[in-house]
Structure formats: C-alpha cells, structure tokens
Amino acid sequence: MPRVEFAHTDLTAEAPAGSRLLDVADETPGAALASACRHANCGLCQVLVLDGAALCDPPEAAERALLARLGAPPEVRLGCQVTLRDGPGALRVWPAALPRRG
C-alpha cells in the first residue's frame, strides 16, 4: 500500500493504489492541500513531488496542458490528478504555493 508524506505538516497516510492524492489529503486530518475544481482546471492544488515520483501514474493530457500553461517545473503535479501506484517507499509532497522550510 502506498504511503504519502505531507512534508509541510509532517503527517503520513497510507492509501490503496489507485487513490488520488487530493482524496488522501482530504481523509488525513491536518494534511491541508488547497483545492477548488478537482478537474485540472484551476491549478490551486499544485504540489512539489519531493520524493517518490515513481509511486504516481504519469500525468494525463489535461494535467500536462494546465501545468504547461502555468509554467510549472517538471517536479510539480496537480494533487487532484495524481493517482497512486503500488510500490515501496513513500510519495513525499509539499504544496507549491507554500514557501519551503529550510
């Protein structure tokens, strides 16, 4: 079962493969990922993938298109579109809108 680490809150959650990252955050009290549309339209749920990108399905066309329009770097994904794959390790994320702690 994939593990998700919300680095900005130091919270960790396990979720079955096939789960969407934003849904996992919603089910993890305190994980706090911003969201609005949930359909790759707004970009509010952008996250930096710090580790574990192999635990994510590749982005589909709508996500790629929005991230390109937003000028997002390659390590940024949309939390509403990231689907978890099974595998060892953890997907470690940080909301792109938040400044990173040193």
What is this structure, in a nutshell?
The protein has helices at residues 21-26, 61-70, and strands at residues 3-6, 11-14, 46-51, 76-78, 90-95. It has 102 residues and is an alpha+beta fold.
> What about the largest sheet?
5 strands, mixed
Cross-sheet strand order for the largest sheet: 2-1-5-3-4
- Which geometry do the CA atoms define? globular
User: How would you state the average pLDDT, rounded?
Assistant: 95
Structural class: alpha+beta
Helix content: 10-25%
The CATH topology assignment is Ubiquitin-like (UB roll)
Q: Give the count of structural domains.
A: 1
Percent of residues in beta strands: 15-25%
In CATH, the homologous superfamily goes by the name: Beta-grasp domain
Count of helical regions: 2
CATH architecture: Roll
Protein architecture, described:
The structure is a single chain. The chain is α+β, with helices and mostly antiparallel strands and 102 residues long. It has one domain (3-95): Beta-grasp domain (Ubiquitin-like (UB roll)), CATH 3.10.20.30. It is 16% helix and 23% strand. It contains 2 helices and 5 strands; from the N terminus they run ββαβαββ. The protein has helices spanning 21-26, 61-70; strands at residues 3-6, 11-14, 46-51, 76-78, 90-95. A 5-stranded mixed β-sheet has the order 2-1-5-3-4. Strand 1 and strand 2 (11-14) form a beta hairpin. The N and C termini lie far apart (30 Å). The mean pLDDT is 95.
Features:
102 residues, alpha+beta, Ubiquitin-like (UB roll), five-stranded mixed sheet, 2 helices
Describe the secondary-structure layout.
Blueprint lengths: L2 E4 L4 E4 L6 H6 L19 E6 L9 H10 L5 E3 L11 E6 L7
Parallel strand pairs: 1-5
Antiparallel strand pairs: 1-2, 3-4, 3-5
